[in-house]
TrEMBL record:
Taxonomic superkingdom: Bacteria
Domain AMP-binding enzyme C-terminal: 440-515
Keyword Ligase in annotation: yes
Name of this protein: Acyl-CoA synthetase
Keywords: Ligase
Entry keyword Ligase: yes
Gene3D superfamilies, sorted: 3.30.300.30, N-terminal domain of ligase-like
Length: 538
């Protein structure tokens, strides 16, 4: 390459470009008249979607957005979010999706930390956004409006639909390289503020390919996108791959069971992603058995393991649906390992094996590989991995020690290379000097008749330091109490793994992607051990 001039090299790079923006253009050239995006109030063929993206990108450019700028989006699922995803990618600007469950202070932190120059907000979330903008002290050159509730656009804001309908339809004259950052995803905060993971087209497209090949995705898919698009799972494991292969995407605002069931029947959907909690809610719906779900062929789950009892029920009640388990995290764009349909029952509870473009190891604290059956930290090497954490070099260095991305999850390999995720490092319970994986206890409790959902976590304890604590949601008509649960656990678990405390709730706290919020439960029940020691009922 030494004899190639810089000008020639630049021209070659243009010819070899493979960005997220390029992916949509190529799909639109292949299948221009095919349905790309269908929502309640607007739908697009691929040719129309490609043009809408160009118009929006050019409208943003006219208003001052340039490559490298950050534009935040605070909205439930909508066609506007889909258009903005690709419009910002074409400009080389960074899309910053924000969890719509956050309060104004939390949103303000993200706006300030990302130094956002643009914000697009759904009308029902405007009060939160307005307070956040005031607190963040950022100067916005773009203020976009998504009128899901048909609220009139306020002064100083512009409807995204206006950009779509009035912008220049030509492709923006912006050079975006494959490894330029185009996405800034803020990870869920626990004990500290969330980190901003930078992702490039190379990260995302490498991950799309893993999903498409190992997840057996195709252009014939008709997929419902109900889980929040601010989260990397729905956005990048499913919407991105669908656009890549030319599938049809049905956008719904929320994973309401009745809405999902109606949408599957109405659009003859073939493909659906839900975390286990949402699959459970679908099966508990009174409409489940009377809804025509015969079109459904592919089901995916993630965010948390599928309890074996639930997996068996799903396969019994939806026998024609093949299931995949996707495991990963934001920093891996996000897919890391996959458990495939033929492995579901034989390897129940497993996260599968590394995806196509990922290699995975388990290591001890010194960075050495652990043996089969031994617990180690899960680390990955892949082009899917984040470019690093925005404005946080120290955490980037820590995460990429020795040239591997350190996930913070603990796992075990079996003799065939299948991974079982034992716990997050922070979720491992150390009670009386012994390690207890919360997932193992949850699986044991799920085998007890009458259990709808369960979460196991640690609470402070004056004797055990950390006590194994369970919170259970019972099925309707079930008759369970603390002693029955403990007695059952004693028959299947070692004594130190049996919960010291068992509580019952009507529902578990969850984020919009369906993940159970154990940190909230830890706060609620933090005084359990002290109360019991003092003879006080909670």
């Amino acid at each position: 390459m030494a004899d190639i001039t810089p000008d020639t090299a630049a021209v070659v790079r243009i010819a070899r470009s493979h960005t997220v923006g390029d992916v949509l253009r190529r799909t639109a050239l292949r299948v221009p008249d095919k349905a790309a995006i269908i929502s309640a109030d607007r739908s697009f063929t691929y040719a129309e979607f490609d043009e809408a993206v160009n118009r929006t990108a050019n409208a943003l450019a006219v208003r001052g957005i340039v490559a490298g700028d950050r534009v935040a989006i605070l909205s439930h699922n909508s066609w506007e979010v889909c258009v903005l995803t690709y419009a910002l990618a074409r400009l080389g600007a960074l899309m910053v999706p924000i969890n719509y469950m956050l309060n104004s202070d939390e949103v303000a932190y993200i706006l300030n930390h990302s130094q956002a120059r643009g914000l697009v907000v759904e009308d029902t979330l405007f009060d939160v956004a307005a307070s956040a903008v005031d607190a963040a002290g950022v100067e916005l050159v773009v203020r976009g409006w998504v009128p899901i509730a048909a609220t009139p656009t306020p002064a100083g804001w512009e409807a995204v639909a206006e950009w779509v309908d009035s912008g220049d339809p030509g492709e923006p004259p912006v050079r975006v390289d494959d490894d330029d950052p185009i996405r800034l995803m803020y990870t869920s905060g626990t004990e500290s503020r969330p980190k901003g993971a930078l992702l490039s087209s190379r990260s995302l497209i490498s991950q799309y390919i893993s999903c498409i090949v190992d997840g057996e995705m195709s252009s014939d898919d008709v997929e419902i996108h109900a889980l929040p698009l601010y989260h990397c799972a729905q956005l990048d494991c499913f919407l991105g791959p669908d656009i890549y292969v030319g599938a049809t995407s049905i956008i719904v605002s929320r994973p309401d069971p009745e809405l999902l069931l109606r949408t599957i029947q109405e659009h003859k959907a073939t493909k659906l992603f839900c975390p286990p909690t949402v699959w459970i809610s679908l099966m508990r719906s009174p409409s489940f058995d009377s809804t025509d779900l015969s079109s459904l062929r592919k089901g995916y789950y993630g965010a948390s393991p599928m309890p074996v009892e639930v997996l068996q029920e799903l396969q019994r009640r939806l026998p024609d649906v093949r299931l995949w388990n996707f495991y990963g995290q934001t920093e891996m764009a996000p897919l890391a390992t996959i458990l495939k349909p033929h492995e579901q029952m034989a390897r129940a509870g497993s996260a599968g094996r590394p995806a196509l473009n990922v290699e995975t190891r388990l290591i001890d604290d010194a960075g050495n590989d652990v043996g089969v059956g031994e617990v180690g930290e899960i680390v990955h090497r892949s082009p899917q991995a984040t470019l690093g954490y925005f404005r946080d070099d120290a955490k980037t260095v820590e995460a990429f020690r020795d040239g591997w991305f350190h996930s913070g999850d603990l796992g075990v390999f079996d003799e065939d290379g299948y991974l079982t995720v034992v716990d997050r490092k922070k979720d491992m319970i150390k009670t009386g000097g012994e390690n207890v994986a919360s997932r193992e206890v949850e699986e044991a409790i799920y085998t007890l008749s009458g259990v709808e959902e369960v979460a196991v976590f640690s609470t402070p304890d004056p004797k055990w330091i950390e006590a194994v604590t369970a919170v259970i949601v019972m099925r309707e008509g079930a008759d369970l109490d603390e002693e029955k649960v403990m007695a059952h656990c004693r028959t299947v678990l070692a004594g130190y793994k049996v919960p010291k405390h068992v509580f019952f709730q009507t529902a578990l706290p969850k984020n919009p992607s369906g993940k159970i919020l154990k940190r909230d439960l830890r706060v609620t029940y933090s005084g359990a051990g002290v109360a019991v020691a003092a003879g006080v009922e909670l």
